[in-house]
From TrEMBL, chain A:
This is TTG1. The keyword NAD does not apply. InterPro entries: DCAF7-like, WD40/YVTN_repeat-like_dom_sf, WD40_repeat_CS, WD40_repeat_dom_sf, WD40_rpt. Pfam families: WD40. WD repeats lie at residues 179-219, 268-302. The lineage of its organism: Eukaryota, Viridiplantae, Streptophyta, Embryophyta, Tracheophyta. SMART domains: WD40. The keyword Cell membrane does not apply. It comes from the Eukaryota.
TrEMBL record, chain B:
One of its GO terms (cellular component) is nucleus. Keywords: Activator, Coiled coil, Nucleus, Transcription, Transcription regulation. Residues 464-491 form a coiled coil. This is BHLH transcription factor. Signal peptide: none annotated. Gene3D superfamilies: 3.30.450.40, Helix-loop-helix DNA-binding domain. GO terms for molecular function: protein dimerization activity. It comes from the Eukaryota. It is found in: Nucleus.
Amino acid sequence: MDNSTQDSHLRSENSVTYDSPYPLYAMAFSPNNNNNSHSAATTTQRLAVGSFLEEYTNRVDILSFNPDTPSIRPQPSLSFDHPYPPTKLMFHPSTHSPLLKSSAVDLLATSGDYLRLWEVRENSVEALSLFNNSKTSEFCAPLTSFDWNEIEPKRIGTSSIDTTCTIWDIERGVVETQLIAHDKEVYDIAWGEARVFASVSADGSVRIFDLRDKEHSTIIYESPQPDTPLLRLAWNKQDLRYMATILMDSNKVVILDIRSPTMPVAELERHRSCVNAIAWAPRSSKHICSAGDDSQALIWELPTVAGPNGIDPMFMYSAGCEINQLQWPAAQPDWIAVAFANKMQLLKV
Amino acid sequence: MVPENMKKQLALALRSIQWSYAIFWSDSPNQPGVLSWGEGYYNGDIKTRKTSQGVELSSDQIGFHRSEQLRELFKSLKTAETNPQTKRPSASLSPEDLTDTEWYYLVCMSFVFNIGQGLPGRVVASGQPIWMTNAHSTDCKLFSRCLLAKSASIQTVVCFPFMEGVIELGTTDHVSEDLHLIERIKTSFLNILHANDPLKSGATSKAREEESVACVAAFDHNAYNAELIPEVGYGIINTTTSPDGSSNALQANQPPDETFMVDRINRGSTSQFQSWQVVDDELSNCVHNSVNSSDCISQTFASPEKIGSAPNVENLSDLQKCNNQKMTLVDPLSDDWHYQKVLSALLKNSDQLNIGMHFQNFYQESIFSIWKKGGPMDCQRPRVGASQNLLKKVLFEVPRMHLDGLLESQEENDYKEGTRLEADENGMNHVLSERRRRAKLNERFLTLRSMVPSNIKDDKVSILDDAIEYFRSLEKRIRELEAQRDITNVETRAKSSPQDMVERTSDHYSNKINNGKKSVVKKRKICDMEKTNSDALKVSSTNDVTITMNDNDVVIEITCSPRAGRLMEIMEALNSLNIYFKSVQSTEADGHLYLTIKSKLTGPTNATAKRIKQALQKVVLKS
C-alpha cells in the first residue's frame, strides 16, 4: 500500500481532514463498520469520495475512517475510474443482500450517465453491473441523483434530466417502473417507505409517488416564485412526516410536513448565502444539518411549531470555504462529513 | 388537563346537532404552550363491515366504542415504528376499514398547533370562535388540514374557545354561520360540567348525561345564575358603553360568559379580579364578533390567562380572506385517494413522540460551536463567483458532458458506418421515444430546408412542398439530360466542377433556380466536387467561427470548407447546446461555405460564447 499519501492532516480529537488531489463532490459512508481486515482490532468505517473534474476521467476513492484516533486512510488499491464526475455515491444500505457475497464486501452505486454497481472487496473493486434503460446506445438520459431503498434494498430509484424517475430492481437487473415524474428535469429523489418516494425538479415542485398507484402523484410543495428549481430533497427517516428541500439561489432550507401540503412548516433562513446540502440526523427526528456557500454547517433543532422570528440554529461550524456536500452517516451518528474544494472533513457532533 | 367526562359532553353536544365529529384541543402535557389532541368523539359515517361486535349496542355505545377504536388504531399506528420487532398491538380496526371521514378524524390526532397558528391556535389567540363553511376549499394557510378535509368532504368546521383549550366541531353538511348554535352547545357543556361538579351540585345524577338534547336546551339556569349575577351585570354595563353593542347581541352572548365563569370557578385557582377581566374580554369579543376593535386587542393582552400573540385584526382579515380564496395549489394529477394512501403508508412508519436527542456529550467533544447571531467575521467576506457553483455544475453541466460525449461518439458512428437507428420505437417508454423522434424529425426538416431552395416560410408543409417541387424539377432535368445523351451520345458525362459550384450556390437562392436550365446536381457529383474542394482547402484553410451574443440572441457566423452533412452537424451541435435558430443563411463561394445563423438561447443553458465557439470549431475542423 502506498504510504506516501498522507494519512490525514489537521488531526485533532474532534475533527479530521482528508486532502484529495482533486476537487470532491460525491461522498458516501458504508453502513458496515468492521469490514477492514487491516485493522481488525479497531473498527473502521469505509467511505467513498468522488472527484469533480470537468473532463472524462474522474476518480472514486475509497477511504477508511477510524473514529477512535480519529484518522482517515486512503486505500489506493480500491480507487477506480468513473466517466465524468459521479453525481452521487451510495453504499448498499443493508448488510444482507443476495448481491453481497461476504461481509468483507461492500456494494457501491454511482450515478452519472447510467446507474452503476461496483463491488468493493478487500483489495480490489470490480464493476458489477451497469443499468441502462435505453434500448439504443445513441441515447442516454443522464442521472442527477438516486436513492437506495433502505427497507427494500433491491430497489434503487434514479432521477434524470429527461423528466423521469426510474425504479430499478437491481437484483433482477430490470426496470420495475419508469415514471414521467415532472414537467422538467428531476434533480433529486428520496424514498420514504418501501413503495413511496418523492422527487424535486426544475419545475419547482416536490411530488410524492406511490408505486401501488403509478398514475397519480401528489404535489407536496411548489416553490414560491413559479419554476424556481428545487435542487435537493431529504426525507426525515426518523419521522416521515417531514422532508426538507432547497431552492436554487436561495439561502433557505424549506421544511415540509406531508400532512399539510403546499405550506412549509418552517423555513430555515440563517445561512448567509445559498444552501448546497442538507442531511437529517440519523438518530433523531428533530435535527437537521445544512451547509452552504457561506462556508457554514449549521445544526438545527426543529421546534414543534415555529415562532414568529424564525428558527435559529443550535450549533455551527465554519469550514473556511463553500461547503458543497454534507453527509450525516447512520453508522457514525456522532460525525458529520462535509466536502469543500478538494477537502473532505469529518466533524464530531 | 382534560376533564374526565369530556368525551361524554362532546358526544352529547354532537348528537344534539347531528354533526360528524368533535375534538377538544388542549394544552399539550408534553409541550406547554402547544395545543394537542385532548379528547374527541366521532359521530360520522362508519363502515359497517367490522363494527358488528356480537353484542347489541345502543347507538350511544356504538359511538363511544368507535371513538375508542379509532384512538386505539392511532396509537397502534404510532407504536408500530418505535418497536419494529414487537408486533403492533392488536387494534380492532385497520386503516382500510375507515371511511374518509374517520380517516380525517384519525389523522387529526397527529396534529399539534402553536397558539396563534392553525385553526385551533388562532381561536385560542383571539378568544373568538371561527366558523368556516367551506373547509374543503379554504386556503391552507388558515386551515392546514384542508386537503384532508376535502377528501373527507368535511364542509363546515367550527372552533370556539372552551376552558383552557378549543372545541372543534365538524360536519359533512353545509351549515351556515349560527352563533346561537355555539352558545347552545356551550350551554350543554356547562350543564354537564355543573352537574358533575361535586362542589356545586354533587347530588345531580349521572343520568343527566344520557339526557336528550331537548332536556339540555331546556336546562334551568337558576342554580348558578344566582352566583353569577354580579359578574354578568358588570359585563353588561361595560359593554353597553361600547358603540357597537346591541342589547340583542348581549342577550345572545350571555351564555358563553357564564360558561367561562363557571369554568373559572370550577378550577378555583383564579382570583375574582382576573375572572372579572376575562368576562369583560369574552363578552366584548363576542359582541363585536366580526368587527375590528382595538379595545378587544388590548383587553386580550391585558388578560394574562389567555396569552394571545396574534392580534385580532390580522385574524379577522385572514378569516375574511379565507372565505373568498380558493385553494390554488392543487396538483392536477392529484387524487384524494392517492394522497390518503400515501399518508397512511407513511403515518404507519412515523412517530411523533420519537424525540431522541443526540447531543448529550456536546459540550465536551464537538467541534461545532453554539450558534450566535453575529457569527464569526470570516463568514462575512464577499462571495466570489456564482452561488451554488458546484451543485449547479453537478446538476446542469455533468449531464451535458455525458450528452456531448455521446453525441461525439455517435457522430463518428454515423459517418463511419452510415446511418443506423430508429430501432427504439418499441422501447418501453413510448412518450420518451416519441419526444426524441419529434426532435429528430425537426432536425432533419431543418437540414432538408437548408438543402432545398425554399421560400421564407419554414413550416413543415412548405418545406416538403419545396422539396417535392425541387425533386420534380431534378427528375425532369435528369430525363432531359439522359435524352440528350442518348441522342448525341457524346462526352457530357463529366461535368466540370466550376459548373457544379454555380449550381450549389444557386441552391440557396430560390430566385435563381427556376431559370436553372443549366445542369443539375447529382449526389455523385457533389462527392466528386468535394474531393477537389477539400484538397483546395488544405492549402487555404480559413475556418472561422464568430459568435455575437446579445442577451438570448446569438448570431453565429461560420466560414468553413463545404462538405456533405456539414450543415447537419452544425445544427446538431447547436441543438445540443439548447440553441434554436430563427434563420439560417448559407452561401458558397471560393470553395468556402459561409453560414450566418441567427438563433435564440432557450431553456436552462450554460452556453457561453466560448462554449458555442468551441463546439462549433470541433465540427468545422472535422474534415
